[in-house]
Every structure is written in C-alpha cells, then in structure tokens.
Specification:
Cytidine Deaminase, domain 2; single chain; 3 helices; alpha/beta; binds zinc ion
C-alpha cells in the first residue's frame, strides 16, 4: 500500500482553465471543482482530469475563499465524475518560500478524508522578472507575461488522499503546455 504511485494528469486545456480562474480573482483566492477519472492499478492511482469548473458564488479574500452555503450541486457528477477540487493561494513572492506553500491545515480539515480525491493548489504571484522553473515533479510552474509590467508566476501543486493519507502527488501534463508557456516568454 505504501508503495502506490500517485499521478495526476492534466492537459493544457484544463491547466489553462485553472490559470484563468486564478488570474480572474487575483489577488483574491479562487476555488472550483475538478472532474475526470481515477484509474486504479495494482501499483498506481492515476487521476486524469477531464473538466474543471470555477465556483462563481463565493466570498473571496486574499487569504481565504468560501463557496456560498447551500450552493447547488457543487460537486455533482453530471457527465464526468467528480474527482476533487482546487483553490488558489496568492502570497507575496518575495516573502514566502513558495514551494512550502502548499495545502494548509485549514484546507486539510475542510476535506473529507475518506475520499480518494485530489486537491490542486494554484500558487499565483505577480513578479517583475521571470523566475526559474522548478524541477519538482509535484509542481507545474511557469511565468506568464503581464501587460509589459512583469509576469504572473504560477506553481500548481497536486495532492491526493488515499486511505486518509494525504500526500503531494506527481503532476503530469503535455509537452504542448510547456511549449506554449515558453513561447509566451520570448
Ligand atoms: Zn488553501
């Protein structure tokens, strides 16, 4: 059990949706639901994302976001099964160790531990210069140009729950995603 490999696969279309959701509300937090399939094999669990949906009815602060109470069918599996959630964290890039800024204690407590769900954290910052990308396999990062005054830096970190154990989870995407992000930088 301890050796189950955990992988989240999310292609460039759904990553774009996540980034747009985070940028739209920046510097306030965003949140939403993630749909797709969970493939369980003997030695691996693979969550493949096939849709993401930003929750529109929410109260947003710079360090907190909450969906309205009694929101209708927030995680309703309509066509694609619900496999998890996402939200953003917007910190001052200069004052934080960005790679330690993953899921918080409150985030963990808000989650149902019995699920086999994922949580994606979008760390988003405005920065004056591009910052080197991480080689951490549990993070997808990039720099998006921002109206000639700098960049949006993003680091998307994946988490998953199996048997009540939450762990950082390997994030995989397409080559096309990295190519596109790179093209935007020059
Ligand atoms: Zn959080």
């Amino acid at each position: 059990m301890s050796s189950i490999e955990r992988i989240i696969f999310i292609d460039e279309r759904h990553l774009e949706s996540l980034l747009r959701s985070g940028i739209e509300t920046y510097p306030r937090e965003t949140l939403g639901t993630v749909f797709g399939t969970l493939k369980k094999e003997k030695n691996s669990f693979i969550w493949e994302v096939s849709a993401v949906h930003p929750i529109q009815l929410a109260t947003r602060k710079e360090d907190e976001v909450k969906a309205y109470e009694n929101i209708v069918n927030e995680d309703w599996s309509m066509i694609n099964p619900h496999i998890g959630n996402y939200h953003s964290h917007n910190y001052d890039f200069n004052n934080q160790d960005r790679l330690t800024r993953g899921i918080s204690k409150e985030d963990k407590e808000a989650h149902s531990e019995n699920s086999e769900e994922i949580e994606l954290i979008i760390n988003l910052y405005k920065i004056p210069k591009r910052f080197r990308l991480t080689n951490n396999p549990q993070v997808i990062s990039g720099n998006l140009p921002l109206e000639n005054i700098g960049y949006y830096r993003f680091d998307i970190i994946g988490y998953s729950w199996i048997n009540k154990r939450i762990l950082r989870t390997k994030m995989q995407t397409t080559k096309r995603f990295y190519q596109k992000v790179k093209e935007l930088n020059y």
